[in-house]
Amino acid sequence: MSKPAVTELLQAAVDAVKGTERPGQAAMAEAVAEAVDAGRHLLVQAGTGTGKSLGYLVPALAHGERVVVATATLALQRQLVERDLPRTVEALHPQLRRRPEFAMLKGRSNYLCLHRMHEGVPQEEEDGLFDPFESATPTSKLGQDLLRLRDWSDETETGDRDDLKPGVSDRAWAQVSVSSRECLGASKCAYGAECFAEAARERAKLAEVIVTNHALLAIDAIEGAPVLPGHEVLIVDEAHELVSRVTGVATGELTPGAVNRAMRRVAKLVDEKAADQLQTAAETFERLMELALPGRLEKVPEDLQYALMALRDAGRTCLSALGNTRDKSVQDEDAVRKQAKASVENVHDVAERILEGSEFDVIWYERHERFGASLRVAPLSVSGLLREKLFADRSVVLTSATLKLGGDFNGVGASLGLAPEGLGDEEGDAAAETPPWKGLDVGSPFDYRKQGILYVAKHLANPGREPQRTDMLDELTELVEAAGGRTLGLFSSMRAARSAAEELRGRLGLPILLQGEETLGELIRRFAEDAETCLFGTLSLWQGVDVPGPNCQLVVMDRVPFPRPDDPLMSARQKAVEEAGGNGFMAVAATHAALLMAQGAGRLVRATGDRGVVAVLDPRLERARYGGFLRASMPDFWYTTDRNQVRRSLAAIDEGAKRG
Hints:
Helix content is 48%, strand content 12%.
């Protein structure tokens, strides 16, 4: 029996959600079906409002093989599992004659650990704050959270942290969860048969569609121990985030706190000599880190080398001792031993990695006001890793509203380990060893040129390093005033956002919310509810705000969001491109800025009736040579540098919204 056409299936799914047919969605579904059937790779740019979830779910379900869908945000994972997949499966059932099973799978630490809940945490972690068998009601916030978790553990069917409403603090959750390294394993654990994480894995093994996150996808690819079931098709949604998420998973970190924690955990389980060796190494490392200055280490200094060698060797000694000793005085020693081993392994592995000094790694010190200094190591690039681990054995579809930067897919393709489009097909070409792929832009249902204006304030001075830009604040004040509020302010730093919020609160009689003064969800809710309210903030607002309608009609960017010049990883990547004969600034800094500006500009038009202005208060977008590349990465708004025209437009939009 022949398979039903993907267009028929899509129409059935669209009807089921009471939607309307969108040409971009249909083009995407057909392209995904073709790529999946041919075992090829596809990059799809699908603008806001395209309905890209159905655009890939319908052909994926029709294909009939196991599919993994990886997203960057929890919100999209929940939307897929709770809304899109149930409706789509039901809609397609009459034509497919089957109901594909689907499941969500997360990392182990996202699920409540019954062993931790019933047996307690190792003593050094408890700090006397919680006895799971104690019936007295604690008065502290932590104690109250833990009592709630105990009650919830008896009623939850999933053990998934995200199903606990309202949530609990990270500190409380850490008492009742374990990492994959700390887990005893189902066969050795008294609660293995009831384990929530194991149950989630079993459901995933039986499912045709598995929804997960970028981080778990990265762990599956990098660490060699598969956590995802084998699959023939991989779909990466919010794909513009993939490289940074994979980089995060591949980054190692050493802090004095983590080293001391490992030392405390292992001290009761090994002989005194091994424990003393680790304690001495930890003290040396801590003294060194007190003097550490932020920045990249092109070469590991001699004193740090000695400290890392001491940590590595002490870690190896302790790991060897852990394998040989048993201490009957320690209750539930297997759990205690597993946790100690995980902590010491991390110290050993990161120290050894830094000492190996791979040319493909970047090493730097970071200093945080609250947490102190840390030593970090990250891959210079993850493109080779992705090419080898992600694209080798399956068909991969990557989609996002922002994959075309500067007018083509090649910048994003390169970051993923893909040769310029088409070159991977050529016999004998150096790029032939990279997988062939195709890029497709299916557009957007929005008429950007009629719905939005891109305004660049070219009369302003170029932004410098000083946080206070008086001319920019004057311009911002006039724009917000003309818009009657309704402003999302996207700033390149928290210091700039705070400065602007404080200044405009003094100048205007409008409510101005500032990121950090309340939870992000609450800030966005308040911004969406009141037309006069403005919301100012930094990175998470560039990508995380979805407020359709008249309450967000002005999106302001204070400057082109280039990475900080002292960002160790970005500057190292830029230098590597230049040494290879490329344009490091365009490949790294400009591409980073283009992606953020495309995402930020995408906050303006979220529905067909939306109108407004994206204002960039940085004249370099008009004057600099790279300005055209950045503008070509943003939605195709009507473009102007005429400040008077923009004020009149904002006032007219405000008036229209009030009449509304």
